[in-house]
Design brief:
alpha/beta, five-stranded mixed β-sheet, globular
C-alpha cells in the first residue's frame, strides 16, 4: 500500500488564471493491491488515523472474500510520518488486529526509495487515466465526478470512496499520549 501524490482536480477548458496559481481541490489516492483496490478521499491527510480509515473499507472487502482469514501481511513503504511510527504501531495492534479478527498480522516496511511496487503503479494508472479524461474534454471538478469517471475508465481497479466521517471516527481511536518507541526507523517488520 502507498499514498500516491495528490491528484489536482482539473477542467478540460481552463482560463490561464485558473491554471497558474489557482487554489484547486486535491484528491488523495491511497492505493492498495490485494492478492488472493485502493480508495479515494477528499481529505489530504496521510497520517496513521487516515491510513486506518482507508484500511477499514479494504478490510471489509477482504473479510467478505476470505471470511476465515487467519493471517494477513501488509507491505508499505516506510516513511515515519505515515506507516512507520508509534501511532501506526498502536492503531495496528489495538484497532486493526481486532477489526480483522486475525491470529497473525504482519506489517513489512520497505526502505526509503525502494517502495515502487504495484500500489505505485495503480496510483499512476489512475492519475494518467484522469489526465486523459481531462484531455478529451471531461471536467473533473469534484471527488464524486472523479470517482464516477475513473470507475468507467478503469474497470479493472476497484475504487472505494471514503466519507469525511470515517476519518473523524478513526481519530477517536488515535492516541496523542504514546511514549516514544526507540528504534522505530530500524524496524523493517512489525508483528
Amino acid at each position: 500500500m502507498d499514498f500516491s501524490e495528490n491528484y489536482v482536480l482539473k477542467y478540460a477548458s481552463e482560463i490561464e488564471a485558473s491554471h497558474f496559481g489557482a487554489s484547486k481541490k486535491q484528491i488523495s489516492l491511497h492505493t492498495s493491491v490485494v492478492y488472493y483496490g485502493g480508495n479515494i478521499k477528499p481529505v489530504s491527510r496521510h497520517d496513521p488515523a487516515a491510513i486506518c480509515a482507508h484500511l477499514n473499507l479494504l478490510v471489509g472487502k477482504i473479510k467478505n472474500n476470505v471470511p476465515n482469514l487467519k493471517t494477513i501481511h501488509f507491505a508499505s513503504d516506510g516513511p515515519s510520518t505515515q506507516y512507520r511510527n508509534k501511532s501506526m504501531f498502536y492503531l495496528a495492534s489495538s484497532y486493526l488486529s481486532k477489526v480483522l479478527n486475525v491470529e497473525n498480522m504482519f506489517w513489512h516496511f520497505s526502505e526509503a526509495g525502494h517502495g515502487k511496487g504495484a500500489p505505485d503503479g495503480v496510483g499512476g494508472s489512475l492519475k494518467r487515466s484522469a489526465d486523459g479524461l481531462v484531455g478529451r474534454g471531461t471536467d473533473l471538478s469534484s471527488l464524486e465526478v472523479l470517482v464516477i469517471k475513473l470507475k468507467e475508465a478503469c474497470k479493472g481497479i476497484n475504487i472505494l470512496k471514503i466519507a469525511d466521517e470515517e476519518f473523524l471516527e478513526m481519530d477517536k481511536f488515535a492516541s496523542n499520549d504514546l511514549p516514544s518507541f526507540k528504534g522505530t526507523l530500524k524496524i523493517h517488520q512489525k508483528t
